[in-house]
Structures are given as structure tokens and as C-alpha cells.
Request: fold
Amino acid sequence: MQLAKEWLNNAKTIMDKIDNTQMENIQKAAEAMADTIESGRWVHTFGCGHATLPIEEMYPRIGGFVGFHPMIELPLTFFTNIVGGMSVHEFVFLERVEGYGIEIMKGYNFDPRDCMWIFSHTGINNVNIDIALEAKKRGMTVIAFGSAAEAKGKQTRHSCGKTIFDLADIVVDTCVPIQDASVPLKNHFDKIGPVSTMAFVTAVWMTVTTVAEILADRGVKLYIHPSHNVPGDKTAKDRLSEALAMYKKRIAGV
Reply:
């Protein structure tokens, strides 16, 4: 199990690096998000491919709370099929199509008080950059999580000439190697054991718990998704219904 230990050590090193270098940026991101949620508005979350996983992890799920709005476009996840319809080939093509993000943004309502929280490992693909540019046009705070230091100097694919990290108002570096996979395997060129998802999820919960802490200190009531599986908890269903009712109210603009 040598390689299992190697991956685990790589993951621990990255988590420690986030802790040692990114707390100030996490605090800034959390404060912006807390202001948005307190005002009754949304922290919109967006990513492509495996960068949708931190979005799914965040909301809706046990321990998450109302205020985060997932923008997950099915053609950009590629998890339904690998080949055939909605395949990996199609996903790789679509995330590089400039202008696609503009069309995605037409499907939602936004407000200058909103935040747009974008997850992108390299920060160079067009859909994410479209989303950031459109969010900035609407006056939103743009927050980017990804491997910012490692991606420095990489050529953007977008005609604006900038990466997602250049455009964002606040950047949290996930501290992941640019190639993502972290464990070398004998007799093979490519490494195995990617670490970006682990880093994204780590940074997400460090941020979201900080948002919750800020809002609780301000006396703001959070509508938290409860566990449905705790024996004897007779009000979990009611608390879940309350959270979903609040989500519905916010979506409707009430």
C-alpha cells in the first residue's frame, strides 16, 4: 500500500498548505458571501467537469444551508456517459467554446449584491471565463478557487487574454500541482491519484463554515439541512421542509 500512503501524504501536504497560506483569502471570500446571504441574495456556484463536485458537495447536503445556488449544466459534467451521447469528447469541446457561458447566464436572474463563486483548476477555459466576465458586467463579486500559483503563466484560451484568476476579485489557491494527478506509477508515463477535488472540498468547507460563523455572530438565522438519519430526531423533517421553503422563496425573489 505504498502508493496509497503516498497519495494520502500528498493530500495532507496540500491541506496543510491551504491552512498555512490561504486563511486570509478564505476570510475575504467568506465575508463577501456572508454580506450577500444576509441581504437575502445568492452566492451562485459554477464549475465544469470535476469542478462541479465541490458545488454538489456544498448544497444541497446535510450541514449545508440556504444561500448557495448551484449552477450545474449537465453537458458540462460528463459524468452521465463516458462515450456515446454527452461524452468526455463533447465535454472537452464545450468547456472551450467561447460564448457558451454567455448563453448559460441568460437562464438565471442576477443582482449586483450576488457573488459568483467559480471553481476551475487551471483557470484557462472559456466557459468559466465567460461566466466571470458576465458576472462582473452585472456588478457581482467574482470569487475563484483553483490552482492559481501553479497556473500562473499558462496561456488563456479566451480572447479577452485573461484567466479566471486574473478576472476574479478574490482568489483562493487550492495549492494543487497543475497536472493534478500526484502519484507516479512504474512503467507508466502518466501519474495517478488526482488531488484537486479533495483540495476543492477542503477549501469549500473551510469557507462555508466561516460564512456560517460570520452570519451566526451577526444574529442571522441560517436554514440548515439536517441529517435525516439520526434516531429520535423527530423534527428533522420539519427543519428540512423549512429550509426548502426558504430556498423556494429566495428563488422566487420573495
Q: What stands out?
A: The chain is about 45% helix and 10% strand. The longest strand covers residues 141-146. The chain has one domain: 2-222. The CA atoms of residues 77 and 95 lie 10 Å apart.
